[in-house]
Amino acid sequence: MTSPARRLPPMSALRAFEAAARHGSFKQAAAELAVTPTAVSHRIRALEDYLGLRLFDRQVRQVSLTPAGLQLYPVLQQGFDMFDVAIRRLVAPAGRERVTISATNAFVAKWLVPRVASFRAEHPDIDLQLHASDAVVDLASHAFDVAIRYGKGPYPGSRSEVLFADAYIPVINPMLPVRSHADMAASPLIHFDWQKASPDNPTWTRWHAEAGIEWRATQAELRYSDESHAIQAAVAGQGIALLSQALVADEIAAGRLMQPFGPEVSGYTYHLVTRAKSHPGAAVTAVMDWLRHQVPMAR
């Protein structure tokens, strides 16, 4: 029995949509794909015509995903990411082990990348591949060896263990004249948008409630869809951000950010996750041990 033929839009249209959704910009997508912004726009319009759905809200110098676009984007992103991982493995130099770690964009940029040099010093014969995506990857696909997931758990179908718990703290560029709660009204609050709404999310609304401070609905705000962008906005002095203590630790140590006051609010927990139905090989075990040793204070 033969499988039915897949009815899919042109790959060029899907790639244009995924890149534009990831960057939030037709111009940046065009630069990545080495085409013009007009070509990206035409390909996405053709995809919308094919589906009979609008995928982007188009505004001057800005595009945002519609509900249909938000539904399609993570599926395509994970698919293209898996293509990338599989192809890289196929062309990897023979005789070297490669381990792929999947984690959120912010965790990869702010926690994993600064620590990669220590792994290479300990394990020069193992290549690390870092996969950054806010979409939850399917470890059963065998494209990924280890995932670091942020949440409450549990994660059915996987082996998981607590790596460390997180907390969120108010941070600013030290040059910003904010040193007390009374100074807050003069500076914008920097937010990043959580993918899933929950009262447990460490948001400014929850922080105000736990601090016993009245929420100022008129206070200026800046919103980012990616936590690493919110961190960079805080470093640039754009306002006061409520951010992961783990992800801003290096910025605080370097003096680029400071915590002017409390309280801190509890975040979620980072879990180390692997496939349930397979035993990790020596290379994956070495990576997991290295990850555990990066957080001795949490163990």
UniProtKB/TrEMBL annotation:
Q: Which domain of life is it from?
A: Bacteria
Gene name linked to the record: gcvA
Q: Which GO terms describe its molecular function?
A: DNA-binding transcription factor activity; sequence-specific DNA binding
Pfam families listed in its UniProt record: HTH_1 (PF00126), LysR_substrate (PF03466)
Give the record's keywords alphabetically: DNA-binding, Transcription, Transcription regulation
Q: Which GO terms describe its biological process?
A: DNA-templated transcription
Extract the PROSITE patterns matched here: HTH_LYSR (PS50931)
User: Which family does the UniProt entry place this protein in?
Assistant: Belongs to the LysR transcriptional regulatory family.
Could you tell me which residue ranges the HTH lysR-type domain spans?
9-66
Full protein name: Transcriptional regulator GcvA
Q: Which NCBIfam families match?
A: PRK11139.1
